[in-house]
Amino acid sequence: MSDDTEKATLRAIARERRRHFVASLDPLAHRLAFKVIPSPLARRLADAQVVALYMGLDDEAPAQRLAAPLQALGKTLALPRVIDRLGSMDFLTWRPEDQLFPGLFGTSHPQAAGDPVVPDVIIAPLIGFDRAMNRLGQGGGYYDRIFARYPDALRIGLAWSVQEHDVLPADPWDLPLHLILTEIELIEGEEA
């Protein structure tokens, strides 16, 4: 099986697993998930100024719930803006009270008010992850490109625990995550 076929199969399995997991969550547990930044992660973010989040779609882990605790730490928040269908994306400053505008692929982003910002930390959505810190994304390459564009940024995957796989295929251009935060644990990679 080719890597592309294997990744497509893994994406389908992971989406189904995630959908069932989120549907089975107690509503209170769902509302409380990702509202607190664990102490080890807060220490890792101490020197960061700009933290890029994302607006969770469907049953993705809701990164927007980290906004309040990140603001309490004095961080500037940003959201991605998908620029085109070729994998181009940048980050715009965002506050939770800001109006969001529709973007490509069902995304939302703030109004551009000035130049895009450079993130110190990129919190990325994912479909699957493994303990080698590999991330299986949607397949468009947006985060692969943004990780390469900002190689010094701390790369954090946000996921439900059920999205873990034993092993995921990784292409040469796939940069591993430094950390993965799930609703039950913070996983640190060797490069973290």
What does this structure look like?
There is one protein chain. The protein is α/β, with parallel strands linked by helices. The protein has one domain (3-188): Rossmann fold, CATH 3.40.50. The protein is 25% helix and 21% strand. The protein has 5 helices and 11 strands; from the N terminus they run αααβαβββββββαβββ. It has helices at residues 3-24, 27-32, 39-44, 67-72, 142-149; strands at residues 50-52, 76-82, 89-94, 100-102, 108-110, 121-124, 128-129, 135-136, 154-158, 179-181, 186-188. It has a 7-stranded mixed sheet. Strands 4-5 form a two-stranded antiparallel sheet. A two-stranded antiparallel ribbon has the order 7-8. Helix 4 (67-72) links the parallel strand 1 and strand 2 (76-82). The longest helix has 22 residues, at 3-24. It is globular. The N and C termini lie far apart (32 Å).
List the helices and strands and how they pair.
Layout (H helix, E strand, L loop, with lengths): L2 H22 L2 H6 L6 H6 L5 E3 L14 H6 L3 E7 L6 E6 L5 E3 L5 E3 L10 E4 L3 E2 L5 E2 L5 H8 L4 E5 L20 E3 L4 E3 L4
Parallel strand pairs: 1-2, 1-6, 6-9, 9-10
Antiparallel strand pairs: 2-3, 4-5, 7-8, 10-11
Summarize the structure.
Helices cover 25% and strands 21% of the residues. It is built from five helices and eleven strands.
Counting structural domains, the number is 1
Kindly name the structural category: alpha/beta
Low-confidence regions: none
In which order are the strands of the major sheet placed? 3-2-1-6-9-10-11
What is the arithmetic mean of pLDDT? 90
Give the end-to-end Cα distance, rounded to a whole number of Å. 32 Å
CATH fold group: Rossmann fold
Second-tier CATH architecture? 3-Layer(aba) Sandwich
The CATH class label is: Alpha Beta
Name the beta content range.
15-25%
The number of helices is 5
How many beta-strand elements? 11
